[in-house]
Structure prediction request, 236 residues.
Amino acid sequence: MSYLLGAYAFALLALGGYVVYLVRSARDLERRSEAGE
Amino acid sequence: MVFYAPDDAVQGVVQKIFYLHVPAAIAAYAAFALVLAGGLVYLWNESPAADRMARAAAEVGLVFTTVTLVMGSIWAKPIWGTWWVWWDPRLVATLVLWMVYAGYLLMRRIATPGRQAARFGAVVGIIGFIDVPVTHFSVTWWRTIHPPLETAAPGALPPEMLVTFAVSSIAVLLFALVLVGYRYRLEGLRDRLAEAIDR
Prediction:
């Protein structure tokens, strides 16, 4: 069971972390675009 | 996945890693097919949109290949007794696939944005795709300890396992396409910002 939980936890962290990275990148780009940087 | 699908008679509960491991591999293949398509379209008409799609899909494909590799490795430990087998063609071909697209993204990050980088990226994306069928068919072409393709065939699975696998595959594939779409939008914003700074 621990291997299954470990595998699912990794998938959740990897994909969730990637979604957070994308959202933060979008916010950063929008901020830079508004500031004209 | 955890509650609906029955436990495998031989592997037990750890077999349920399959319901995310295989769909993640399918999503990665689909993303790399988009890199191939983007590269071909870019070489044909130099469309910046095609290049953006290739860049977006390469990153998403790399994320799903990472998930495939790590989940497979976690499954291998209790089943094979080891995290990794260096002589196994499926494992090594998948690792090479990861390296090809990691190299693609690294090159795109380092190279000065423009026509030359996009053309070179398109060529790498087209040639790199050769490893996708090699990875997929490696279990039938060479001797391997990786489960064969027939493991996921409709006749090989009981209905509950097949339904779980089908729903999971469709969900993961749609999620990957949404991520590519979102990343594509980001690449567009980045390109517009770079153009505005150049002006």
User: Anything to note?
Assistant: The mean pLDDT of chain A is 90. Chain A has one helix and no strands. The interface with chain B takes residues 1, 3-4, 6-8, 10-11, 14-15, 18-19, 22, 25-26, 29-30, 32-33, 36-37 of chain A (CB under 8 Å).
